[in-house]
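Appendix B. Raw example, untouched.
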Amino acid sequence: MTKFPWGFGLVLGAIGIFSTCSASAQTPPKSEEPIKLNAFEVSSKKVGPYQVSDTTSGGRIRTDIFESTQGISVVTKELIQDMGATDALNALQLLAGISNNSTSIGDRLSIRGFQGGIGSLDGFSAPASQIKVDPAIFERIEFVRGPNAILSPGGPPGGTINLVTKIAEITNFAHLNVQVGQYDANRADFDINRKIDNNLAYRLVVATKNHTQGKNQGYARGLTVLPSLTWRLSANARLTFEYIFTWGHGLNFTGIPLDPSVSPQTEFKMLKGLNIHQSAYADNVNDLSAQNRTSTNNYRILYTVTISDRFSIRAAARFWSGWDSNNQWNLLGNTGGAIDPKTGFFAPGFTFGPAPDFKANPAAPISSMYGVSQSPSNSLYKNYEFQNDYVYNFSSAAFTSETSGGISGSLSKNRNTGYAATSAAIDIFRIPSAAAYTINNVASSDRLTTTKSLQVYVNENVKLLDGKLVLNVGVAQNWYYGIIEDYRNKVSYFTHPAPLVKNYGIVYHPVRDISLYFGHSENASQIVQPRQSNGVTKELQEGRQDEVGIRYRFLESKAVASVAFYDSSQSNNGILNPALFSIPPPVVSPPPLFMDRVARGWEYELNMAVSANLSLIANYTNFRNRSPYGTPFRGASENSGGFFANYKYTQGALKGLSWGIGYVSAGKRPGDTGSGYTAASTDKNLIRNQPTFYLPETKLWNLSAGYRFSSSTMGRLFIDNASDATYYRGAINRNGVYPGIPRNVRATVDYSF
């Protein structure tokens, strides 16, 4: 067993913090001193409204996007405002590699085919939440494609979404934004930033929402409060304190059943006569059994200092705590068919007998009555994290180099208690229904999960040939420790992997505005799960990727086009266990199943300020994300794309007017995951279960218009899904399909003062 080196980590962290404090003490703040940008701060300069030149997501230090060995994209605050984004998916779906895999309540995305969400918050792991993050706190969103051992050791190999929050700036501004509309719209936020003096400022962001989810699919309520304080200790040192409080309630939309005749070989359709825009329990606003609830408290401290022109240090720590209540309702039965053991495909209208004949028999007639199961759970969690990073720059006539290294660690505790609940069957054609249920007060599961991690890394970036050639190599040693204390069964489970991961890459500029790059990246995280019934233990999930691409800058660097090809893999990917939806429902929720994944594909992206008036962002993605045997995964749309164009009149009779047009598309995707082998399989003829249905492709047009009434007042009108197309956000199985919303009209007013 590898000993967990906590003492080593604490010593290094103490040295870093002592060094930063000493440096700031030696340099008292002077308001007249020029401000120097250190290695951990991005520049405020924007190439265009939707384009920036650098980011911190390359690994907690500032990274030039044009010289990165990984694909990196940034969603700016201006793009979020012009699109009127109401959640992370709305803001991110114009980036190559991201498509819709969302329910109406949570932030769920398909990232290069891997399911994920907001993986990182200001460079730390994102707090668990059953409710969508309010976009009012977004300063920008950074997307690093592929695994990243430094930024997100435990993130999915598809990529990491890093949400950068708004913090206090040494200036004065304030604004109030109010939004009203048909669906997912009624909200308001207030943002005030005030300079106390030339070295000290505070900021307060408050956002609230109370609106329907889709059309008759429940509701969402939320409150987010974000105060922050920035103290410029000197021209070279800055200290920031931040607190984020979130609270939210939302209906856990059960989804609705599709027509039993649907299979991979037939046309997709919902159950005939069913109102697809009506949840089974949409009207139970005050019924706790129909709610997902969350509340979190998030504290962060960040300190950066430039010791000299060559040496910079960053020290950061964060603590967050909170609770979640997750009430998952599931419709059961009435599938109207079964998997054919001889083919692995769903056969509508038939069930199959036992071996060796597997005789086909007519399926039971479909009833309007659907069984209901529920597995409510409550979670209490605490999480502590620290990061300490160092950057040293060196330059000579032959080359320049940037050496970065550091240490990070975390400790988290999560107490999860689950229960079994039953409810009477409901008539699916007579909804919404009363959520009449009986809960067993004896816990079906009661576990305390404790995880620890420590990482030490070093990364070297060297520029040669007057900057035409960039070489990058890095290595990170991770130590993990995890334990599950199962109080119900009076057993414990341990994991203690210690993976060593690496990254390397090369960038070549044949001419100034062309960047050719190759990058290899890895990450690895622990799996803390009870041992499976077959005795197989999974302790580590690994991600690896090779990516090659080209970037081209034109229009005086106001436009960037990129093309990339990637080949990535993930071991031990956890998928939803279909046993959760068996009849009768399981008393104890079954553990996830583990499957390896391989993804390969092409991505195309364009971001340009065509002129002072016109901005355009566009993307297209085509890939395959499958098991090693070719089985596709739930929610992975293997082709997607979109664009958004915004035009602003800056002079003449139309001065102050702006308009936007957007389009997003996603190809068909599996509605469930085929896992395991059929009963007719033999050692020489393995027959794999395939997805039983595919969601149809999505094609959405979105329109917007705005008018600036004065320097302080701006009004905008948004028409989402302008063509009123029928589409589907996602699905978990044949009885849990999530329709998207119809045409939706929203309006916002933004007042600055």
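End of appendix B.
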